[in-house]
Amino acid sequence: MIAGRGLSGLKTRDLAREIGCANGAVYNLVEDMDELILRVGSRTLLRLDQALSTAEGAGEPSPQETLVRIAITYCDFAAENLQLWRALFEHRMEAGKLVPDWSAADQMQLFRHIYVPLATLFPKRGADELGITARSLFSAVHGMVALGLEQKLVAVPLPALREEIAGLVRAMIDGLIARAERSHAAAAP
Amino acid sequence: MIAGRGLSGLKTRDLAREIGCANGAVYNLVEDMDELILRVGSRTLLRLDQALSTAEGAGEPSPQETLVRIAITYCDFAAENLQLWRALFEHRMEAGKLVPDWSAADQMQLFRHIYVPLATLFPKRGADELGITARSLFSAVHGMVALGLEQKLVAVPLPALREEIAGLVRAMIDGLIARAERSHAAAAP
DNA sequence: AAATTCTCTTGAACAATGTTCAAGTCTGTT
DNA sequence: AACAGACTTGAACATTGTTCAAGAGAATTT
């Protein structure tokens, strides 16, 4: 139902009718609507993880191109699973309740896809620094995908968006490498 | 009320009590809750626009550093106006209703802050291309701010986030420039 | 001054929706 | 056959956006 009509199209009564039970019975399967949404999110993250792994597997490209591939794959996944992907970020826990552990753990797993090629590119950097860079890279690409698929502003056709993302990821990596080399040259001239 | 308790903390009855009228009377001031939220959003965008203009005004820095300043200012504005800023992006129009013109126009205005320095940096590019690059740059920075201020994952202290943003913006611009020079050299060697 | 008309206000009522719960139903065990 | 435990049901409750008929007030007309 989330995939079809979005998070706001998920109603307990419709859900109960669809699975063939009384509306109250939904609460035997799930504590909350929050839990249901997080469980669906967990599946979505798993599928995203698989898509990213598949994208990495083909050929033996440079770390740069691996990162570009990951970004493009993320974009495609979001486009093909628009509502489910949106549900990952639109959902807000109701006040005072925090995300359970099993859900938080899912999210961290994804960063390793970015972390590994980054570590190859920047062997001098420590784990913390790499983690932060990975998160920044992800955030930047995520922003492009999020606002790009939001047809609110100028509607960008998907192929153009993919090109933009690829270009900007390459630019970011080039810039990061140049910056690293410059600071290296300055440190040991 | 949005600034205080967030979009989900805005209730018509509370609002009516606060302004001292019956709950029904709210609908004489505003068509909808949608309209109210968009009107608040309009004010927020105006204040953001002013903050960006102020940031540009000081000194006469290079276009690169202007773009970095803009990004940092955006980050700071989001941090200082967290709920109002979130409301800009969290709000979804109820199905089938489209954003009125006066609201859509507000959003476009902001891109000129990015567009102008970019046009200086890349005089060869056409208006369309610059517009797309501007939007990509904004999206990337927005993503970093959005996920950075979302304390859900690893909590990043604000100064560190600002540094990350500055670094990545510089890297992106360096990369874009290098890329432009390379294609220029290939075109006319 | 009285009457009329127009607008604004009020608060009840409606509809949608997440959640709870007492009563009923079913299944398996004693 | 009797009982216990679990599941199911559908009504009921609370919250919330929205509508609306009735009333209050002010301005204009007679």
UniProtKB/TrEMBL annotation, chains A, B:
Stored Pfam families: TetR_C_33
InterPro entries (UniProt xref): Homeodomain-like_sf, HTH-type_TetR-like_transc_reg, MT1864/Rv1816-like_C, Tet_transcr_reg_TetR-rel_C_sf
Tree of life domain: Bacteria
The organism of origin for this protein: Bradyrhizobium nitroreducens
PANTHER family for this protein: HTH-TYPE TRANSCRIPTIONAL REGULATOR BETI, HTH-TYPE TRANSCRIPTIONAL REGULATOR RUTR
Gene Ontology molecular-function annotations: DNA-binding transcription factor activity; transcription cis-regulatory region binding
Protein name: Transcriptional regulator
Keyword DNA-binding: yes
Keywords: DNA-binding, Transcription, Transcription regulation
Span of domain HTH-type transcriptional regulator MT1864/Rv1816-like C-terminal: 68-158
